[in-house]
Amino acid sequence: MPVPFNDLTRQYRAHQEAFDEAVAGVVRTQQFILGPAVKRFEEELARYHGTAHGIGVANGTDAIVLALQALGVGPGDEVVVPALSFVASATAVARTGATIRFVDVEPVTYTIDCALAARACGPKTRAILPVHLYGQMADMESLSALCAKRSIPMVEDAAQAIGATYGGRKAGTFGAAGCFSAYPGKNLGAWGDAGFVVTADAGLAERIRMLREHGSRRKNWAEAYGLNSRLDSLQAAVLSVKLPLLDGWNRARASVAARYDEAFKGLPMQRPSVAAGRSHTYHQYVLCLQRRDALKTHLESRGVQSQIYYTDPLHLQPCFKGLGYKSGDCPVAERVCRENLAIPVFPEMTDAEVREVADAVRSFFKA
Ligand SMILES: *Cc1c(COP(=O)(O)O)cnc(C)c1O
Predict the structure, then answer these.
(1) Does residue 68 have a pLDDT over 80?
(2) Is 153 close to ligand 1, i.e. is its CB under 6 Å away?
(3) pTM of the predicted protein model
């Protein structure tokens, strides 16, 4: 039985009326730029996170750029970034003009290694950017302590972790700013590119709003080199339909993951592991094993789709060649890139599909 990696058409069909009505509502007003739909979503976002401010932007990459720039990060500064993430976590930092210090990840959670992060901090360090990879939050306790000790802000890349918690507190609310992507495939996905920032800091929120709109607080008066990076009103309307459904969707993902955990007990591969006090949004359910490529081929032969997140660590990407990193500098990230395979996990998966994926993986080890 074929199993897709994800199928967003099921989500659309399940809530078609609400989506169509929300989009038609924006179309009727013809207010496409920062109209009432964006304001409403920003308020809902802030309420969901229990934080004072939500700011809609054009995508998750800009969310990081804008948060860092609003914090004053720029040329001459250094930002500590994990070596395992989507490339935008790092290119967003590079966009500000700051220099990236790559740090390896922990072997179990795949999030930034806090001891190494502490060692990477120096007099020029102006921010730490943890990534809540695959949907599990980084070690907020150690990182918050490190940031407090050095009086530098933490900016969370929470693109994969909306709704995840650490000690009951939500992803994106530990740092000076939490940055999110609503790329369609994310747990809260728009119908195109979209992103947002949450923060408790009114001044920071004000600067992000200024920077997302040409550096202007009032029309035709630019205080800074801003971007044109506003959340599209149609996307905001779609996201307002989805936000109340998010926690249920995340629970559905977790229940798929629990069934995989049960089915894969004892198999010689690394499964996702949730650290005590944390919850996981299962943006991805990632396996690690040396015979990764063979497993991928085996799953393909049974019609089960899978994906690699990521094939290459950030410190070895050609765009960062100038930083001088070499193979062996971040061995855990390099190992995960050789061994990872993400299998289907999405809220609308049927029981039969979950069983099919589990059987397909188990049959690989029997062969
Ligand atoms: C998706 C993602 C981004 C970038 O978000 P876009 O909306 O695609 O710009 C940044 N960081 C991580 C970890 C992501 O998964």
Answers:
(1) yes
(2) no
(3) 0.98
